[in-house]
Amino acid sequence: MQVDRRWRNRAAAIAAGALLAVAASMAPAVAQDKVTVFAAASMKNALDAANKAWTTEASKDVTVSYAASGALAKQIESGAPADVFISADLDWMKYLSDKKLVKEDNKSNWLGNSIVLVAPKDNAKPVEIKDGFDLAALLKGGKLAMGEPKSVPAGKYGQAALEKLGSWAGVEKNVAFAESVRAALALVSRGEAPYGIVYATDAVADPGVVVVGTFPESSHPPIIYPIAILSDSKSADANAYLDYLKSAKAAPFFEKEGFTVLK
Fold it and tell me: Are residues 85 and 211 in the same domain?
């Protein structure tokens, strides 16, 4: 009986040790829970700054993938693991919403922006952008850099504005379509295109370019950035992260880069 008791005590000790080992192995997984964000490329500078502040304050991890809104929406549709989606226009958010991939109760229109005409820093002269704007003459055979309208909202807004102003037909064949608004910005910054259409927030982010003109708000649909948690999100911190981004504490990070925080 004494031997059996010793074996039982030893078995209990082994079982307790195993439970402690399992608990220990699970603890880091909880501590390392993170938020994965898919965000429009134009968000990078402002969102990086806000994320740095949040991770310091909340001791949580955030991982961000930046690209054109259309490319990100297609990745989400294909099953890419993400918790939060920030689109540079309403259409791509609606695309995911229609497929039941977005939690509707926390979806909101969050930020506003504007589109501008930029030129390399060393070749910048103010331009008046209005009806009949002769952009073709301004290009002098050079390329106009802008996002691909089918997947890049900035490109879609840019095309809409040029069509409204009567300038699109004259420059359509000379457009260098880029995979994202930041890629279009880089073409101008490197001097590979004399002009480009980007968001005002992108122009602020690159010292190699200067804004030479701002497109009238009436020339294109309102530029709105919606934000939402995705239906397949597994993050326990997604709601807290979303609340932080939309708080008064985070607003200055976005206003500094030229975004308008929508009320």
Answer: no
